[in-house]
């Protein structure tokens, strides 16, 4: 593995499992100092164990707590003395009904975690990011790009993240900060594992018509690392589907 991120420091939210864990470990393996944030103590500690040999610090925090983003960034700055990359990955899923099935509390919760926390984490991190060279990677979703049944809060939160990516680039791109998003398709993580293996409707609607089948967290982590690299220096304000061909096709295999 290259050491292209030696001397750089990153915050990764939602790093206790799935895509966040894979991304934190990927950045660390390429030399970055990583400040890993999550709610889940044991699983976050396990991520740190897996990063053995790297400069890896953890913090328990709920990113949806309004005071948390400033505290997270301050703690990362104290730990590493610099901040180069912010990976806004923490999020919750939200299927189970349409707009008429969605209560205010459920709506507010998913917007708080999946969208408002992304805004606040970005606001807290931006003053510290180097110009040029700072990188922000948001994790959006294919469900923020097309209409799909159920989960209006999830869809709206992820579409909001996609548009925040473009808007923030209009404000900060000229300063040399790359802000992009990844829109994963079906990735096998603790969030989706049950649906992938047990939900016949999800298998039919999502997996069967993904030409390349189910993806793995490393498929997203590799793209996140690329977006943090200087090879992606001229990519800005993009929402990049990493979905095995789900969005770009109307794939329906003949049995
Ligand atoms: P995951 O396995 O559930 O990992 C997400 C991590 O974030 C979990 O450890 C989760 O803890 C944590 N988290 C949730 N809310 C938090 C909060 N308020 N503060 C701090 N940490 C919090 O999910 P994943 O599949 O890796 O998802 C990562 C991101 O990718 C999410 O934004 C998700 O929407 C997006 N995404 C995933 C897929 C997919 O197919 N997996 C597809 C498109 C987009 P808890 O488990 O306690 O909630």
Features:
8 helices, 41% helix, single chain, alpha/beta, 255 residues, 7-stranded parallel sheet, binds NADP nicotinamide-adenine-dinucleotide phosphate
Helices, strands, pairings?
Blueprint: E1 9-13, H1 18-29, E2 33-38, H2 41-50, E3 56-60, H3 68-80, E4 85-88, H4 104-125, E5 135-139, H5 152-172, E6 178-184, H6 193-198, H7 200-207, H8 217-228, E7 239-242
Parallel strand pairs: 1-2, 1-4, 2-3, 4-5, 5-6, 6-7
Helix pairs in contact: 1-8, 3-4, 4-5
The structure holds NADP nicotinamide-adenine-dinucleotide phosphate.
Residues 13-14, 16-20, 38-40, 62-64, 89-92, 113, 139, 141, 184, 186-187, 189-192 line the site of NADP nicotinamide-adenine-dinucleotide phosphate (NAP).
What is the typical, i.e. mean, pLDDT? 97
As residue ranges, the low-confidence spans are none
What proportion of the residues form beta strands (DSSP E)?
5-15%
Residues in helix, %:
40-55%
> What is the terminal separation in angstroms?
40 Å
Order of helices and strands: EHEHEHEHEHEHHHE
Radius of gyration in whole Å, from Cα?
17 Å
Count of individual helical segments: 8
Number of strands: 7
Pairing-aware structural class of the strands and helices? alpha/beta
Assembly type of the chains comes to: single chain
Biggest sheet record = 7 strands, parallel
